[in-house]
Amino acid sequence: QLHPDTPPLYASGVYYSCREFSSRALDGLQELSARLSSRRGNEGVDDLAGQYVGAAREERVAEFRALVTGGGALPEEPSDADLLRFLRARKWDLGRAKRMFDEYQEWRREWPQSRVRPVDVPVSVGHRKAFVLPRPDVRGNPSVVLVASRHMMYEVGKGKGNRETTYAFQVFCFDHAIAHAERLGRQQLTIVLDLEGLGWRNLDLTCLKNIVLLAQARYPERLGACVFYRPPSVFYGLWKAVKPLVDARTAGKMRFAFNAEELQVELGPPGQVPTLLGGDMPDGEMLPIESIPL
Known about the structure:
This protein is an alpha/beta fold. Helices cover 39% and strands 11% of the residues. The strands form two sheets. A six-stranded mixed β-sheet has the order 7-6-5-4-3-8. The protein has a two-stranded antiparallel sheet with strand order 1-2. Strand 1 and strand 2 form a beta hairpin. Helix 2 crosses helix 4, helix 3 (80-89) crosses helix 4 and helix 6 packs across helix 7 (205-218). The longest helix has 18 residues, at 166-183. The protein is globular, with a radius of gyration of 20 Å.
């Protein structure tokens, strides 16, 4: 029960009173979970993929390569796998995929893969809130665990000369996790956002928005699944603010897990799930994100 004087949450002009987060809000989360679960059969489905197989796919990729490399200003030649991710994200439309690719290249000039180092995000690293699991999930993809209750948003960037941002840490996490996935021969990740114990000091709307926007616009088709685990009713307010930003393709990869059994459907048997998340694997076997090389 929240104290009546607990301050309200202001999020991008949207006001959420603590008192509106009740069992009704939890019911709303469960209804949302059911709707997202009904999309699992279409998870990651490319409606036009049937038109682009074999020689037709190779031809489309070649067209796209000619389009994006025509200017000759790329820092390195993109792989076919990279080009396919942008084509799939924009439903094989060359013009839209080209715009997305150009925006990505412009962003990468500001945020090159090696820009953010552990020394640049010491507070976030010190929170010990991001890990990679040592074994793949049921899809064969590596899983990244983000522990929301350890995200002390008011500590980031505090102190004289401290310019650390949560956004920089998120880019750091994506880059290192994707490098790990590619070494394993995988293109996609599963993200598990552990929401148990989420409170006002961790309730960061901007952080959640950036996860969604980075996954959609800067790391297209890198997200295999995103699991919101053990969400408290207060999370529903954040989700209401973020949901309009989620496109249909990304929404099809999102689901809620309310207990350990539901999480194991995504990650595998208890021996592959850390104790922190209700499994049998020792937490010490999780790999801190800063230990993962690029």
